[in-house]
Amino acid sequence: MAVERTALDRLRLRAFDLSERTSRRGYRSAQHRLQRWRGRAFLIAQCAVTAGLTWWLAQTILGHAAPFFAPVAAILVLNVTYGNRLRRGVEVAIGVAVGVGVGDAFVQVFGTGVWQIVIVAAVAMSLATLVGAGPLMTIQAAVQSIIVVTLLPDPGQGFGRWLDAVFGCAVALLIATIAPSAPLRRPGILAAQMLQEMAATLRAAVTALRESDPDAADQVVERARRGESQLAILQNAADDGLAVVRHSPFRRHQLGWARAYADLIDPLDRAQRNHRVLVRRSLVAIWRNECVPEPYLRLLGAIAGQIDRMAMELHEGKLPAAARKQLVWVARDSSHLPVADTINAVVLLAQARSMLVDLLELSGLDYFDARELVPDMD
User: In this structure, are 174 and 292 located in the same domain?
Assistant: First the structure.
């Protein structure tokens, strides 16, 4: 009887633990979805307003009763990377022209039906490819030709539909120039998020080393690897910011800030690479039951603290220069640490010191000045 009660208690405890973990995962998922929506809220609002505006303007200026292709083309243009919008806008217009032209020709001669859809899609995509189209233009040609053949089989409206699409592209490019969807502070916010994740991962690695926990170290390594994709997002955001200030006459005065944010990418990339090597070496040290000296762990904790400070500056819209003095002190202290007698501990120390050079660069120094501020080991 006692054995059955103990087993039942274990099942209840496991069920409670499972429900608690499920609840935490659901909360984190909801938070992630909300954060993703906030990141896209401006673009969503911009697309919605532009769609309505292009429909109204096309009706008012062009005199078209139902300018379907105007808002569609506008949304397509607004959803491409800012720096490529002009080229993509032209691609959309040409793709629509090819698709509508092919669709109208088939409607006039062959009517509408299943085999007409097959032929018209193949011909439209082939023509777009032959004129050197990219993927977007090729897809647009196929989509618009199918729409013409199936939903709007009116041969007399071919030029009007093409004009609606060109009008929508032009309005979208104008809106993107006046109110760009890529906020200039976004690269700084993304860099701050990367630094916060780097600091948290570094602290988790220190905890795993202190507790000699290989499972925790495995999770830290996986967490560090997931951060690799963030750099590409940051690069795109920095490129978008530069394109905004170069194309928009209302943002030219912010070119210096856009360049400063773009200059964060290289040192941040190197810091992230050194960080991943450090985390992987921590896992190897735990696997081999090697003891990492406590001063080394305190050094990693101090670096994590300064990384958090730099992230806070970026969140406040500042360049991360205030942490430079503390980073120099941490670098000097690291040069006085005794050299450990295990290879993995030595590599950890070397990677930590390399990260200090990267972080000093991130604070605004060039490589040679940053390297001079990290003294050689005693």
Answer: no
